[in-house]
Amino acid sequence: MKLLVAVKRVIDYNIKVRVKGDETGVETANVKMSMNPFDEIAVEEAVRLHEAGTATEIVAVSMGVQQCQETIRTALAMGCDRGIHVKTDDELQPLAVAKLLAKIVEQESPDVVVLGKQAIDDDSNQTGQMLAGLLGWSQGTFASEIALADGKANVTREIDGGLQTVAINLPAVITTDLRLNEPRYASLPNIMKAKKKEIAEITPEELGVDIAPRLTTLKVTEPSQREGGIKVETVAELVNKLKNEVGVI
Amino acid sequence: MTDEYADIREQVQKLCSQYPGEYWRKLDAERAYPTEFVQALTEAGYLSVLIPEEFGGSGLGITAAAVIMEEIQKSGCNGGACHAQMYTMGTVLRHGSDEQKQKYLPGIASGELRLQAFGVTEPTSGTDTLSLRTTAVKNGDGDYVINGQKIWTSRVEHSDLMMLLARTQSKEEVKKRTDGLSVFIVDMREALGNGLEIKPIRTMINHATTEVFFDDLVIPANSLVGEEGKGFRYILDGMNAERILIAAECIGDARWFVQKATDYANDRQVFGREIGKNQGIQFPIAEAYMQTEAANLMVEHAARVYEGGSRAGAEANMAKYLASEASWKAADMCMQTHGGFAFAEEYDVERKFRETRLYRIAPISNNLVLSFIAEHVLGLPKSY
Ligand SMILES: Cc1cc2nc3c(=O)[nH]c(=O)nc-3n(C[C@H](O)[C@H](O)[C@H](O)COP(=O)(O)OP(=O)(O)OC[C@H]3O[C@@H](n4cnc5c(N)ncnc54)[C@H](O)[C@@H]3O)c2cc1C
């Protein structure tokens, strides 16, 4: 069984993001970038399926600027077999990424595409679903457990009311949630091996995909400062304030 | 500029993030060895970074090793518990026989064999290594009999082998002062209780350091590394590697202090504003940052010179001096920035402050670095 995992390069989760002076986006110059944590979970799951003998090959795909290759290298160090870098300096919105992935799927014919349920930079939570739609494949989103067998996947999903398990036919798109697994750190020998693994480079033009943004970002601003609260002595005082000062009841 | 070691840095950080402040505070309180942490580093292959691939290591240079040590310290962990497993084997690698390399290096690479104890310092000859008194005398069977005492021999209780420097010819007999010392690999699994005794020393930091006593300990002739009498020269190469790596640890510590202080200064409100708004708070942080970056350039330079095949004696010493002074300045700055809270264990500042203080004294006291530079680099008279 062949797996395709998508890995996005995002601002590291430990970094406190800052809005750019001109309000066109957030500051990324000289900021530490890492693999999107949800994608790390996707890679980990794929590598575990490989180790268990369920998967035979894992291809890691990343899209964007040249440095995305570092993110692919991380995936290779964790245990993916080879990488594909769709290189562009242009903005990529979820629909464009889904279309590019669909093209790669056409070329690579994986049985399952595993990706994070969302990326921690734009929090779109759209790519996996759009990809399944474009391919006409089944989808299992927000996976907290995955079992693959006999051309089927049992995907346990985290939903508001609790856990839901769906059985879907392969090929399928699966998006990962936080509790699916705990990603490993790579060993030094595996980091060294990853340096020798192949990363193929391709452009959106070569794939024949129009990546022009469909949405325009008007402005990015800091969330408004939260004002300090106050302490009330009694319930009566609380009700009085809510009624007469805040005017919500 | 792209960092060739960015991937190693990132993965070491990830490993270290599993060993947060609470882990180290608990060990500190119990004076326990960080077994799980050392095991994780070993299994992930980081401690065998310098061992050639043919013996099961990764065969990388000292810069890669320095990057690993720096990241460990920068993450708030303490590599002092195991740094010696990285470099002590260098003496075997450079000067040992093929038989010794085959016998020891693969086991050290896998972590099955631990060689992270180095017995040099003695109670009566601290910094003055050439005056050491522990003797190794050949007996009728051709074995060596060891007598004497070492102090501050760290990690002995967590090591299988010890690299030992002992005198095989008396000071009076030798032509050159630097002759007459020899290096041995002592297998402590056999020696313990048969002439080898270990006594832990309680110290200001959780460092697993000990006194070691040799009383007619018999070790086989093939424990000798290289030629008899040349031991001092052999260990010098190893000491330069050690100084570069410890300098890198200091850089990691300094970066931890600067980050910790910056975060706190941005967060802590006094007089209705962040304390970081005061130049009295932000200037010392900026100064510590600059001193760290400057020292780091020296560390990187020393590592490059060493990798180029030179001994890098002056560079390694300067790197160790500048980095240990920078980390100490940063530590003191971080204490001051935190005010009273610096003393609360849960901030980890006081622990790191105690830990980084060591490196102005060990493995070589900074006064001796100054003497070395004055005498050997500048041509001033020997002062002692
Ligand atoms: C926690 C810890 C772990 C250690 N681990 C090891 C280990 O694993 N293996 C090992 O072999 N050793 C180890 N050491 C020993 C360490 O290397 C020595 O403590 C260090 O070299 C200094 O020697 P000393 O303590 O005897 O100081 P001394 O030699 O007694 O020096 C005392 C002071 O006098 C100064 N001084 C001495 N001579 C001169 C001079 N000529 N000019 C100017 N100043 C001078 C020194 O700089 C120092 O400040 C460790 C020490 C500590 C504290």
The general outline of chain A is globular
Q: What is the overall silhouette of chain B?
A: globular
The number of domains of chain A is 1
* Tally of DSSP β-strands of chain A: 11
Q: Tell me the Rg of chain B in angstroms.
A: 21 Å
Q: Any idea what the radius of gyration of chain A is?
A: 21 Å
SSE succession of chain B: HHHHHHHEEEEEHEEEHEEHHHH
Beta-strand residue fraction of chain A: 25-35%
Helix content of chain B: 40-55%
Helical percentage of chain A: 25-40%
Strand order of the largest sheet of chain A: 9-8-7-10-6-1-4-5-11
Structural notes for this entry:
The complex is a heterodimer of chains A (249) and B (384). Chain A has a single domain (2-224), classed as 3-Layer(aba) Sandwich (Rossmann fold), CATH 3.40.50.620. In chain A, 29% of the residues lie in helices and 27% in strands. Chain A contains 7 helices and 11 strands. With 384 residues, chain B is an alpha+beta fold. Chain B has helices at 6-16, 21-30, 35-43, 62-74, 83-87, 90-95, 98-110, 188-191, 231-267, 279-307, 313-338, 349-357, 366-377, and strands at residues 115-119, 135-138, 144-154, 161-167, 181-187, 196-200, 209-219, 224-225, 269-270, 273-274. In chain B, the strands form 3 sheets. A 4-stranded mixed β-sheet of chain B has the order 1-4-5-8. In chain B, strand 2 and strand 3 (144-154) form a beta hairpin. Classes of the chains: A alpha/beta (249), B alpha+beta (384). Chains A and B meet through helix 2 and helix 5 of A and helix 1 of B. The structure holds flavin-adenine dinucleotide. Flavin-adenine dinucleotide (FAD) binds next to strand 1, strand 3 and helix 13 of chain B.
